[in-house]
Write a structure and sequence with these properties.
The structure holds 2 protein chains of 2 kinds.
Chain A (H helix, E strand, L loop, with lengths): L1 E7 L3 H12 L4 E4 L18 H7 L1 H15 L3 E3 L2 E6 L4 E6 L9 E11 L3 E3 L12 E3 H11 L1 E3 L3 E6 L1 H12 L6 E4 L3 H6 L4 H6 L1 H16 L4 E2 L3 E6 L6 E6 L2 E6 L2 E6 L1 E3 L2 H5 L4 E4 L4 E4 L12 E3 L9 H20 L4 H15 L3 H7 L4 H4 L7 E3 L4 E2 H9 L5 H8 L12 H12 L3 H4 L13 H5 L7
Parallel strand pairs in A: 1-2, 1-6, 2-3, 6-20, 8-16, 10-11, 10-16, 11-12
Antiparallel strand pairs in A: 4-5, 5-6, 7-17, 13-14, 14-15, 18-19, 21-22
Chain B lengths: L6 E3 L7 E6 L2 E6 L4 H7 L6 E2 L6 E2 L12 E4 L2 E5 L10 E6 L13
Parallel strand pairs in B: 2-8, 4-8
Antiparallel strand pairs in B: 2-3, 4-5, 6-7, 6-8
The chains are: A alpha/beta, B mainly beta.
Chain lengths: ~475, ~110
C-alpha cells in the first residue's frame, strides 16, 4: 500500500497536517497508537461527555473542530496500531495492538512523505520513591480524567511546576475534588529571572491571563500551596504513604495516597532518533530535539516532524506546524501557486503562538536537583532499576556516555527502551564528567521502537527492500 | 490484595458495563475505557512486579511510554494495560517479573 502522506499520531499536529494534506488533494493516512482521534491533549475528544467537556474547558473543546474536519475529509484513519519502524525514504511498519488476542501480522505501507507527529511525553522526575505505586505523572492524572472521567478519591498532592500542573488542579476542583496540597518547586527568584522574557510574553496576553486565572483559582479555593520546595521524597513501603520536602527552611510531611508529578514535557524523539537523524540539545528546554528545516523536514529524508516532537511549543503552535508540513509536502508533490505567501502567513502565526514559550521555559525551568538526583539511591532507569549512584560509578570506571551504561549495567535496556531514563542518564554523566550534554550524547534508539512479537514480524505481509 | 480506592468516577456512569476478571476477582467496569483505567477505578494499583527487585509498580504515564502498567491479558504476557480497552470476559493478571518465554504456548503465536 502506498500513500502520498503517512501521518503518525493524531494530536493537533497530526490532525492539522492530515486535514490540509487532504485539502491539497493528497492521499493521506493517519496511523495512531490510540484507538481514537485526539492524541493526548484532545484525548477522547469525540466521545467525551458534555459534563466533562465543561471541566476540561475551551482549549480542549477546540479539538472537536479538528476532529470534525478530519472526519469530513477523505483521510483514512487507523487507530490502535503501533508503529515500530520508519525509514527515511518513507516506509512505515506497524502492528495492530493485540489487546491480548493473537495473530496479527506486521504490515508496511509507503508514504511519499511521512509526518511524524508523535508529540511529547512527561519529563522524568527522578526523586526518591518515584517508582512507588500511587505516584504518577500529572499528565497521567489528566488522561484518566479525559478518557475515563476519573478523579482522585483519597488525599492527593500535586508536585512540581508548569502549566499542566495548575491546569490539572483547576480541572480537579471544577470536578469537585480539592487536592490536599500543591508542592511547587518554583522559587520566588524564578519570577525575577523571567522578567527579561516578560515583554514578549505580554504580547500573548490572552495566554498570560489564562495562566493567571489558573493560579488565582488555586489560591482562591484555598489549596495549600508550598512554594520553592526542595529535598522532595516520596515515602511508603509498598505504596505511597507520605510526601516529604523542605519548605522555608523546615522539613514538612504530608500524608497522601496519590502524588502527581510534573515538571514539564519533552519531545518524544523515539522515531526520529531510531533513523539516526541528527538531534540537538536545547538548553532552554533541557531536552533533545530533531534538527529540521523551517517546515519541519528532517535532513536528507522524506520525513517531516510537526508538533511537540519537534520541540515543545504547545497545542496551538503544533497545529500550525502540522499545516506547515502539509504545505511544504503539497508544494513538492503539486506545486502550490501561492506557496511563498502561505508559508509566510503560517510562519508568522507560528511565531506569534510561540511568543510566550521562552517566558514559560524560564519561569518553570525544572530544577537541577529534580533532573540530576543528588541521592545515590534514587532510581533513574525504572525498568532495570539502575540508580543515580550506579551511573556515577560507571563514569568512575570509564563510562563516557549513555550507550555504554547499557553494557555496564543494563541501564536503558528495559521495556521502555530508554524513554524514561534517557535525559536523566545524559545529564548525570554530563555533570559527573563536567562536560555538556551535547558531548555526552543520547541513547542510540533502534527499531523496533515498540515491542513486537517475533511471530508478528515473521508474518510480515510483504518484504520490501 | 490491598484495595485502595485512589480514584473514583466523578460523574454517574450510565454507560454499558462489561465484566473482567483480575486475578480471579470479578470486576464490573464501564466499556470504552482502558484496562489500566478500569483497574485503577477499582482500587487496584499494584499492576506488575519489577523484573530485577520484584518491587510493586503502578501505571505512571497512561499513554504507552513508561511500560509500568504491564499485565498478562488473556494469556498474553507483558501487555500495556493503558493501551488496551476492556472487553467482556477478559482475564487479567499481574505481570510478575519478565515474561516467561518458555511458558508461552507456541500455537497462540
Amino acid at each position: 500500500m502506498s500513500y502520498d502522506v503517512v501521518i503518525i499520531g493524531s494530536g493537533p499536529a497530526g490532525m492539522a497536517a492530515a486535514i490540509d494534506c487532504d485539502k491539497y488533494g493528497l492521499s493521506t493516512i493517519i496511523l495512531d497508537e490510540q484507538p481514537m482521534l485526539g492524541g493526548q491533549i484532545y484525548r477522547n475528544i469525540e466521545y467525551v461527555t458534555s459534563g466533562r467537556l465543561k471541566i476540561l474547558g475551551a482549549d480542549y473543546e477546540h479539538g472537536i473542530i479538528l476532529a470534525d474536519k478530519l472526519r469530513k475529509s477523505q483521510v483514512e484513519y487507523r487507530g490502535n496500531v503501533s508503529v515500530w519502524n520508519v525509514t527515511r525514504n518513507g516506509e512505515v511498519s506497524f502492528v495492530i495492538n493485540r489487546g491480548g488476542r493473537s495473530g496479527e501480522k506486521s504490515q508496511s505501507i509507503n508514504g511519499r512523505f511521512v509526518v511524524i507527529a508523535t508529540g511529547a511525553m512527561e519529563r522524568p522526575f527522578p526523586i526518591k520513591g518515584w517508582t512507588l505505586p500511587g505516584v504518577m505523572g500529572a499528565g497521567a492524572g489528566q488522561i484518566l480524567l479525559k478518557s475515563s472521567g476519573l478523579i482522585p478519591n483519597l488525599p492527593t498532592v500535586l508536585i512540581g511546576e508548569g502549566p499542566l500542573l495548575y491546569l490539572l488542579a483547576y480541572q480537579y476542583m471544577k470536578a469537585g475534588y480539592k487536592p490536599a496540597a500543591l508542592v511547587s518547586t518554583t522559587r520566588f527568584s524564578d519570577y525575577f529571572k523571567a522578567i527579561y522574557n516578560m515583554p514578549k510574553a505580554m504580547l500573548s496576553w490572552r495566554d498570560f491571563l489564562k495562566g493567571l486565572k489558573l493560579l488565582s483559582s488555586i489560591y482562591i479555593h484555598g489549596i495549600k500551596v508550598y512554594s520553592g520546595a526542595t529535598c522532595l521524597e516520596l515515602n511508603g513501603s509498598d505504596f505511597l504513604e507520605e510526601v516529604s520536602f523542605k519548605h522555608k527552611g523546615s522539613y514538612k510531611k504530608i500524608s497522601a495516597s496519590l502524588a502527581l508529578l510534573h515538571q514539564g514535557v519533552i519531545p518524544n524523539t523515539q522515531i526520529t532518533m531510531s533513523e539516526n537523524l541528527p538531534h540537538k540539545w536545547n538548553e532552554n528546554q533541557i531536552c533533545w530535539e530533531p534538527i529540521t528545516d523551517e517546515w519541519g523536514r528532517l535532513p536528507e529524508s522524506n520525513l517531516y516532524v510537526a508538533g511537540d516532537g519537534r520541540g515543545i511549543v504547545g497545542a496551538q503552535a503544533s497545529e500550525t506546524q502540522g499545516k506547515l508540513a502539509a504545505l511544504s509536502i503539497a508544494n513538492q508533490l503539486k506545486n502550490i501557486d501561492d506557496f511563498i505567501v502561505k508559508s509566510k502567513q503560517l510562519k508568522q502565526t507560528l511565531s506569534k503562538q510561540k511568543r510566550i514559550r521562552p517566558f514559560i521555559d524560564r519561569i518553570y525551568r525544572p530544577k537541577d536537583e529534580f533532573r540530576i538526583p543528588k541521592g545515590d539511591d534514587v532510581i533513574v532507569c525504572r525498568c532495570e532499576e539502575v540508580t543515580a549512584g550506579q551511573i556515577r560509578e560507571y563514569v568512575d570506571l570509564g563510562c563516557i556516555g549513555p550507550n555504554q551504561t547499557k553494557a555496564f549495567g543494563r541501564c536503558g535496556m528495559g521495556l521502555c527502551q530508554g524513554r524514561f531514563c534517557s535525559l536523566t542518564v545524559t545529564e548525570i554523566i554530563a555533570e559527573k564528567r563536567n562536560v555538556t550534554p551535547t558531548e555526552v550524547g543520547h541513547y542510540r534508539i533502534r527499531a523496533p521502537i515498540k515491542p513486537v512479537l517475533l511471530g508478528d514480524l515473521a508474518n510480515t505481509d510483504e518484504l520490501t527492500e | 490484595m490491598r484495595l485502595n480506592q485512589v480514584f473514583k468516577f466523578y460523574e454517574s456512569k450510565d454507560d454499558e458495563f462489561v465484566t473482567v476478571y483480575f486475578e480471579g476477582k470479578e470486576l464490573r467496569v464501564p466499556s470504552g475505557i482502558s484496562v489500566a483505567s478500569a483497574l485503577l477505578a477499582n482500587g487496584i494499583y499494584f499492576f506488575r512486579a519489577s523484573s530485577v527487585n520484584g518491587s510493586k509498580r503502578s501505571p505512571y504515564c497512561m499513554m504507552g511510554v513508561c511500560f509500568e502498567c504491564l499485565l498478562e491479558i488473556d494469556g498474553v504476557p507483558a501487555l500495556q494495560g493503558c493501551m488496551i480497552g476492556v472487553r467482556n470476559g477478559m482475564i487479567i493478571k499481574r505481570q510478575i517479573g519478565n515474561m516467561n518465554v518458555k511458558k508461552l504456548d507456541i500455537e497462540t503465536y
